[in-house]
TrEMBL record:
Protein known as: Serpin domain containing protein
Signal peptide region: 1-18
Keywords on record: Protease inhibitor, Serine protease inhibitor, Signal
GO-annotated cellular components: extracellular space
Species this chain originates from: Asbolus verrucosus
GO molecular function, one term: serine-type endopeptidase inhibitor activity
Length: 391
C-alpha cells in the first residue's frame, strides 16, 4: 500500500541535533496537539492538518518579526527560546526531509515578495541559507499574472494535487509577500493490503448512525501495537519502507469515545511503548479534503499582534511599518485505499501593509471514529481524524 502526500504550507519548521532535536520534538508534539484542538472546536467533520509544515512557514515569518510580534509567534508555536536555536534546528532538520530511496519526501520553501520594497539582507540570508527558500520579486499589482505564477509553482511542488490555490482578487498593490512551504511524500507500506480482501462493513459514526464502507483486511504476525489503559484506546503503528516512517491509528475502545480521546490529544501524540503483536487488521478506506484557517487558529493560541494592522512588527524582513499577516490558510487532501495513500496539502501566509500466533490474537477493528497521524522519527508530519470514511 502506498502513501503519497503533497503538502504546501505557509508555515514553519524546526529541528536540531542532540538536546535541541529532543526539544523540538517536544515542541512539535505540543503544537500538533494545540492546532488539532483548535481545529476541532469549529469542525464536526473529518480533518487533516500538517503541524510540521505549519510550523515551518510561521517560523520563517517569525525570523522577520521584531519585539512582541516575534515573541508571540515563538510562544504560540512552542519554538526554541532563541532565534539562534530555532535557526540551528531548522537548518538541521530540513535536509532530513528527503527520501532514502524507499520513499519520496521533500520540502520546498518559496517567498514571493513585492518589487516595491527591498528585503533586508539579514532576512534574505536566513530565508535562503536556513530555510533554503527561493525568493522571487513580483508585481502584486499585476494580480492575475502573479496568481498564475504562484499557482504553477504550487502545482509543480504538489504533483498537481493542489490547483488554483491563489485567487487573483486576494492580491493587489498593498500585498507585500506570500510565504509558502511545500511538503511532498510518497511511500509504500512494509506490508501491503490485498485488494481482494477488501469487503463492505458497518462503520459506526455514532451509536445510531451507521454507514456501510469498504474495509481493508490483513493479518500480521508482528504488528507494532500498544494498548493504553489511561487513554482507553488502542494504538496501531503501520510502517513504511524506509527508516523511521510510519502511520499511527488511534482507536478509542468505546465506539463513542473519540471526544474523550481528543480532550487528551497531547497524550495521544506523545511517545508510546509499542510492541510486536499478532493482529487481525480491519482498516477503512477513507478520503479527506480539509481547509484550515491558520489565522484563526494562531490567534486563538495567543498570536495576536502578527495579524494586527496597528501592532504587527515585521521590520526585520522589510523596512515597512504597518506590514501584517492578513491571511494564512492550509488546504489538505488524503485518499487511503489498497494501493496506497495519496495526499496533498497547501498552506500559505500572505502579508499586506496598511495604506496609510495460534493462540487467540488481538483484533484492531477501526469501525468507529479514530485519530491518525503520520510521523518521521518522532516528528508529526500530518494528523487528522476520521468520522466518516466515505466522505
Amino acid at each position: 500500500m502506498e502513501l503519497e502526500i503533497a503538502a504546501l504550507f505557509a508555515l514553519i519548521l524546526v529541528w536540531t541535533h542532540g538536546a535541541t532535536v529532543e526539544q523540538f520534538t517536544n515542541s512539535n508534539n505540543l503544537f500538533a496537539a494545540d492546532i488539532y484542538k483548535e481545529v476541532i472546536k469549529t469542525n464536526n467533520e473529518n480533518i487533516l492538518i500538517s503541524p510540521l509544515s505549519a510550523e515551518i512557514v510561521f517560523a520563517m515569518a517569525q525570523s522577520g518579526a521584531k519585539g512582541k510580534t516575534g515573541e508571540e509567534i515563538r510562544t504560540g508555536l512552542h519554538l526554541p527560546n532563541t532565534d539562534e536555536e530555532t535557526r540551528s534546528a531548522v537548518k538541521s532538520v530540513l535536509p532530513t526531509l528527503n527520501g532514502d530511496g524507499y520513499f519520496r519526501l521533500y520540502s520546498a520553501n518559496k517567498i514571493y515578495v513585492t518589487d516595491k520594497f527591498p528585503v533586508k539582507e539579514e532576512f534574505k540570508q536566513v530565508a535562503t541559507r536556513v530555510y533554503q527558500a527561493d525568493l522571487e520579486n513580483v508585481d502584486f499589482g499585476h494580480n492575475v499574472e502573479t496568481a498564475d505564477n504562484i499557482n504553477k509553482w504550487v502545482e509543480k511542488q504538489t504533483q498537481n494535487k493542489i490547483q488554483n490555490l491563489i485567487e487573483p482578487d486576494i492580491l493587489d498593490n498593498r500585498t507585500v509577500a506570500v510565504l509558502l512551504n511545500a511538503l511532498y511524500f510518497n511511500a509504500k507500506w512494509n506490508n501491503r493490503f490485498e485488494k481482494h480482501l477488501t469487503k463492505k462493513g458497518n462503520f459506526y459514526k455514532t451509536a445510531r448512525d451507521v454507514a456501510e464502507v469498504d474495509f481493508m483486511h490483513d493479518y500480521n504476525e508482528e504488528c507494532s501495537y500498544y494498548e493504553s489503559e489511561e487513554l482507553n484506546a488502542k494504538f496501531l503503528e503501520l510502517s513504511f519502507l524506509g527508516d523511521d516512517l510510519s502511520m499511527v491509528f488511534v482507536l478509542p475502545n468505546e465506539k463513542t469515545g473519540l471526544a474523550t480521546l481528543e480532550n487528551r490529544v497531547e497524550k495521544v501524540f506523545g511517545q508510546h511503548n509499542f510492541a510486536g503483536t499478532p493482529l487481525s487488521l480491519t482498516i477503512p478506506k477513507f478520503k479527506i479534503e480539509s481547509t484550515t484557517d491558520l489565522k484563526e487558529v494562531l490567534e486563538n493560541l495567543g498570536v495576536k499582534k502578527a495579524f494586527s494592522q496597528n501592532e504587527a512588527d515585521f521590520t526585520g524582513a522589510v523596512d515597512l511599518k504597518g506590514m501584517y499577516i492578513n491571511e494564512a490558510k492550509q488546504k489538505t487532501f488524503i485518499d487511503v485505499d489498497e494501493q496506497g495513500v495519496e495526499a496533498a496539502a497547501i498552506s500559505y501566509v500572505g502579508f499586506r501593509y496598511l495604506s496609510g500466533a495460534l493462540e487467540p490474537i488481538e483484533e484492531f477493528v477501526a469501525d468507529h471514529p479514530f485519530i491518525f497521524y503520520i510521523k518521521l522519527k518522532n516528528f508529526i508530519l500530518f494528523a487528522g481524524r476520521v468520522l466518516t470514511p466515505g466522505q
